[in-house]
Amino acid sequence: MTVSTPFQINPDVCAAQTPPAAFYQSAQIYQQLLQKAFVPAWQVLGSTDLLPSSGAVMPVTLLPGSLDEALLLTCDNHHQHHCLSNVCTHRGAIICEKALKCEELRCPYHSRRFHLDGRMRFAPGFAEARDFPTTDCDLPALPLQLNGPLLWTSLCADTDLEQWLQPVMARVGWLPLTQFQFSAAHSRDYVFAGNWMLYVENYLDSLHIPFVHPGLNQALDFSRYSTELFANGSLQLAIAADDEAAFAVPVGAPDHGLRVAAWYFWLFPNLMLNFYPWGLSLNIVEPRGVAQTRVRFMSFIWREELLQAGAGAALHTVEMEDEAMVLSVTRGMRSRLYRRGRYAPVHEAACHHFHQLLLHCLAAD
Ligand code: FES
Ligand SMILES: [Fe+2]
Q1: Distance in angstroms (rounded) separating the CA atoms of residues 20 and 328
Q2: pTM here?
Q3: C-alpha torsion 150→154→160→164, nearest 10
Q4: What are the φ and ψ backbone dihedral angles of 12, each rounded to 5 degrees?
Q5: What pLDDT digit, counting tens, does each position of 245-276 carry?
Q6: Which ligand 1 atom sits nearest the alpha carbon of residue 123?
Q7: Cα of 137 to ligand 1 centre, how many Å?
Q8: What residues of the chain score a pLDDT lower than 70?
Q9: Does the C-beta of 88 come closer than 6 Å to ligand 1?
Q10: Structurally, what CATH architecture does the domain formed by 48-146 represent?
Q11: CATH fold of 160-363, please?
Q12: What is the pLDDT of residue 238?
């Protein structure tokens, strides 16, 4: 498939066809989506535990294996945090390879020095250079924002983070997110030979739950499972089965009166925020190629005693069940006989929304 021959997705989910198989195998579309869907989005760098103390720096990579953007978290002597490019403004060497305490940054290649806020301080060998230095010599800075236990940045977001997260906070803003603690022991990465879009659309499809996740299905009242769409994502609202763990949603919150088992938020293109009675499971989907994906599962625990209860009790089992289907479909997309499918209108509305957002990005200049 080439982008000069795009397919269409009918805006009416009841009539629409899913993308053709070639969509998931095109290296050109893969690259275009990295630029057009991932670069403008807000991304989670990690937990706020990554933030360095005063006079220290911490290198981080934004979406390793795809965007691979080398960044540096710093904290200057005024206790101000910064998210800077970790690429030297001279010839492009990586400035800092590991966390350290330091008064200033020094590039290992030709010893250009920078303040911890990114301003260039000194450049050996440039005495004869004209119109030097300029602000182009300073390290570019990205926004660095906190939301509860999460650290966010974006390479070129055209909305602010508050607006990006508004649909999430409108529903679960009552949760004491600053009390949620990152737990490395309950977090892990999954790497598999599947396409990232197939992983996302599997997440967005509720039709498979009774068939693929018998354990999870028992924790839910699937007849009351619902999906809501918003501009940059979707919410799947799962109601608990009788006697299964549920949130006590306070008076005044939009879902008060419901026995919520989970809010499954997806933010375009690659973030999932799953709120369970025990806390938050954040899933960051990281493309690694047309048929290779890493998904980071990060757990932020609020009520540890509920870790084994309800919809969020068996995340590894559910992930294994999902990965098996994503691998199956990745293989199916290579078939010479499969063309396009149709959407189950109620249960796959969020998949339809995802595909429309992808096409919208591809069509943008
Ligand atoms: S590349 Fe950093 S000083 Fe030359
Ligand atoms: Fe699933």
Answers
A1: 16
A2: 0.95
A3: -60
A4: -90, 110
A5: 999 999 999 999 999 999 999 999 999 999 99
A6: 3
A7: 11
A8: 1-6
A9: yes
A10: 3-layer Sandwich (2.102)
A11: Naphthalene 1,2-dioxygenase Alpha Subunit; Chain A, domain 1 (3.90.380)
A12: 97
